[in-house]
Amino acid sequence: MGELVTGEDGRARPVWAAHDELMRHYYDTEWGMPVRDERGLFERLSLEAFQSGLSWATILRKRENFRAAFANFAPDAVAAFDDKDRERLLTDAGIVRNRRKIDATITNARATVALREQGGLVDFIWGFRPATTPAPRDYTEVPSQSPESVSLSKALKKAGFAHVGPTTMFALMEAVGIVDTHLMGSWRRGSSGVWPSGA
């Protein structure tokens, strides 16, 4: 994916966030920042599952459509979806119309609600934060999964979640600040407050 690109604002970003305005805004303001609320984490979990096999830019451009289609990712509302909702979603051109991923999102909403008896989705997922985070100088040093993402994947599946493979879970961990894979030298490195910039 290449190295860092310094923008006109003097900030160094990875190539994927350097040129497209939507991706740059996402990188600058959201990616890697801690998400510690149930709805927000359920949304990220759902969107990462939909992203599997596609580009993140595709998902980001459809994000507001996803929110409208899935009741703003309120777990209780999505957990109540029925066959009529499934058919509605399969005909919604504004989202990714993949039956397996749609079914997984409804399944995961129900599992999220059930998980409240064990402390909830946020504590569950953040419980897999590793002792250290990668310190990549380029994208060849960014892993696609980790021992923690493998363990998280297994634990979520055991708790009734679907479409939560270890690679998808590592992407989630990156997106919500559980690990910091901002490249060393990026202006966002260490900005989450979870990890120091040199970690």
UniProtKB/TrEMBL annotation:
Keywords: Glycosidase, Hydrolase, Metal-binding, Zinc. The keyword DNA-binding does not apply. InterPro entries: Adenine_glyco, DNA-3mA_glycosylase, DNA_glycosylase. It is an enzyme of class 3 (hydrolase). Zn(2+) binds at residue 182. GO terms for molecular function: DNA-3-methyladenine glycosylase activity; metal ion binding. This is DNA-3-methyladenine glycosylase.
